[in-house]
């Protein structure tokens, strides 16, 4: 980004996705290389789920566990479409181009055309996307059973192993970057990038069984450990100011896999006291701190609590989650403006063109998932759903290109990267997110299935013989249907999350018979039944109209329909393709766009006008007839001008405003 807009840099260029297909061709399948001998036979077992909750060193067991990802598959619908667009993008990136900077750094000849943007040879963050790419391929393989993408990722691991062979260091930039860290010279986040590569290798092992990737991750950790131990404690804390991101989480994950206390101690070494000490004391000191690179540190604390039982880490992760969601989150659930946190409850004052960096939402969802596993309260998935439907859905264009920010300044528009010349941090987390859309729909305990998200999908709980199919067009339709395709071998309850916004009542039926079960908002409705194949459960959840109010200006409000944040359509004036694609994000305007108003003022002496004014309740919008482009449409009430509202996730190629100003003072006739 330009220095006046963000401290991050972007090397802009243009491009197009080209003719990448959604699935590999028959020729590609025929020519796919044999799997590396380093890959274990249990490659599709998704050992990550087992390691997460069943590691031999774990001290805190999750109370509700995610199903192994091969047990869940998406059915046709918008989420499957997102995954397929992402699959196409992952296939479009050649391994030689991804590996170019690694080879150059290792002194291995490469004649590949370098990638651009944040993977360009002169960008100090180069290499970070390659870590995301390995994670994405591993997640896509385990989410879909795609074997060729696994072969492609295995080949990339082999190439990277050749680059690591000399001394255990693996990077797309030289170790001189770490010398600059030692001298306290400016350098762009080498340990942030190092973590992404380590995390990608760990995911390749945990999700696909690639033993070579694990060996490489351990060598990377050993190199980092040697480097970290060469500092005094005080000097090391200065190093940790430079965006080290998720190193703590990766080190704890290696401890979970190996049981080697060396990696547990490395994780503790990466504890960033400037961030953790206030959180341990339940103090909100987030103002002025970079958001995206600090959230992964807290994920590390959550992971540390699970593995060590350290209650300080439990307090840090829980306090942080509460502070962010209560005091630093927009109506969408997203957080950050200009990549930074600002004063507590500063929402209306922080509606910038660089609001809610997409990486922040990805990482907050990861944190919510950890906290939910530790204590399966439906409120965690109320928040997860809000992020999923407003900041993840809708940040991928029709060609699979991804966004960096979700702008909230009135009059802004969505911007997307280009195929070979973006590779922002959010390109990486987006590639991961759209590869793992199956991982949180269903959880289970010893005797129940938790239905947390309403996404067309099927579940195969092999241990119980239960096959469950969810069909729905939610949120365009209020009905969710669960079909028992194979009955469980023992009594099994279905626990259906009743969302916080479901305030008009929920109806649950089994085989057409309405059930008398408690179904209050932000609870689970529990259905117990002697299930047999062919049984159907129907869940009707009326989507309610409700308002989210900015805490620092009660007149600044956003409209919501169920979990969906709505945005006022503001037209396309001045927009060009080059503004939407290939830049570093929207930059705002000198004069700005005024925030749209909902004028609900009543005239004292004009009864006719008063009769046509908006009703006295707080909901100042109503649903109207759909259009071919927007299946859900709404309109503001009150005086002209009235504004058309549509789900933010469905906005494309036009200006919008998520927040509107409510005007209610009474005026004279």
TrEMBL record:
**Which SUPFAM superfamilies would you find in this protein's record?**
Six-hairpin glycosidases
What's a Pfam family in this record? Glyco_hydro127M
Give residue ranges for domain Non-reducing end beta-L-arabinofuranosidase-like GH127 middle. 449-542
Gene3D superfamilies referenced in this protein's UniProt entry, alphabetically = 1.50.10.20
| Keyword annotations from UniProtKB, A to Z | Signal
Q: So which residues are the signal peptide here? A: 1-27
Do you know which InterPro entries this protein is assigned to? Answer: 6-hairpin_glycosidase_sf, Beta-AFase-like_GH127_cat, Beta-AFase-like_GH127_middle, TAT_signal
Q: Which residues form the Non-reducing end beta-L-arabinofuranosidase-like GH127 catalytic domain?
A: 71-438
Q: This protein is called what?
A: Beta-L-arabinofuranosidase domain-containing protein
> What species was this sequence derived from?
Acidicapsa dinghuensis
